[in-house]
Amino acid sequence: MFTEERRGKILETLEKDGRILAKDLADEFGLSIDSIRRDLSIMEEQGLLKRTHGGAIPIGNVRMLPPSPSIRYGDGSVYQNAIAKEASTYIQEGQTVFIGGASTHFVMLKYLPRNIRFTVVTNSVEIAYHLREVENIQTYLIGGLVKSSGNITDAIANELARQFTIDVCFATAGGLSEKGLSTATPEVAVFHKTIYDNSKKLVTLIEHSKFGIDMFSRMYPVEKLDVIITDEETTQDKIDSITSYGVEVVIAK
């Protein structure tokens, strides 16, 4: 495996798990810990991650490499599954819900209710494809330029998004802090702000690794979020910093 390919795999693991350990990487790639530490040092210099004792964590104000389809559209982590399962309980009969193209959204598909009828609006080709034959769900795909991820967030999509009224929006982001939701790409931020503005209820799905992170583009202020679903690894001080704005935080188990 080439060096750049290995470092790409390291970033994919970091995106999925929220942290990495040098020892685990050394075992995975069959290298010495010193070689992995060298990789992590170089990647930190490039602004791709932040080194910690024994490994590394994401750095929130830079854009990470897009995860491969096997990561974005895989089984998901334990944390993502807990969050996705809890999120699906917020869907009621006859509602229109927004489900985007994040990895947690894809994990949600296996937990969506099958005993009630409702409508899904999505900007993800992948999500729409997997829902196309689900009998109790009516699916609308927002059109526009399709990115390599299968998501659609351009100006055409943004204009089309204005036409919908959403009962429950399942929001995601690259980071959440007292400043609100944020992401790496301005185009993505603009599109999702339009969706959020047209939603009656915002249920935000945020793993512990994304708390306290401010990325390049602001998406939405924290005080406008209705519910945040996170996992058991989120520390109480981070939860308190968000609930002080009157937002309900639910711990998925």
Write the layout of secondary structure elements.
Blueprint: H1 3-17, E1 20-21, H2 22-29, H3 33-45, E2 50-52, E3 55-57, H4 69-72, H5 78-88, E4 96-99, H6 103-108, E5 118-122, H7 125-131, E6 137-141, H8 155-161, E7 166-171, E8 175-177, E9 180-183, H9 186-197, E10 199-205, E11 217-220, E12 227-231, H10 236-243, E13 248-252
Parallel strand pairs: 4-5, 4-7, 5-6, 7-10, 10-12, 12-13
Antiparallel strand pairs: 1-3, 2-3, 8-9, 9-11
Helix pairs in contact: 2-3, 8-9
Short structural summary:
The protein is built from ten helices and 13 strands.
Walk me through what this model shows.
It contains 10 helices and 13 strands. It has helices spanning 3-17, 22-29, 33-45, 69-72, 78-88, 103-108, 125-131, 155-161, 186-197, 236-243, and strands at 20-21, 50-52, 55-57, 96-99, 118-122, 137-141, 166-171, 175-177, 180-183, 199-205, 217-220, 227-231, 248-252. A 7-stranded parallel β-sheet has the order 6-5-4-7-10-12-13, sandwiched between helices. The chain has a 3-stranded antiparallel β-sheet with strand order 1-3-2. Helix 2 (22-29) packs across helix 3 and helix 8 packs parallel to helix 9 (186-197). The chain is globular. 38% of the residues are buried. The model has no long low-confidence stretch (mean pLDDT 91).
Major pleated sheet: 7 strands, parallel
Pattern of helices and strands: HEHHEEHHEHEHEHEEEHEEEHE
- How many angstroms separate the termini? 38 Å
Mean pLDDT: 91
Give, in spatial order, the strands making up the sheet with the most strands: 6-5-4-7-10-12-13
Helix content: 25-40%
Fraction of residues in β-strands:
15-25%
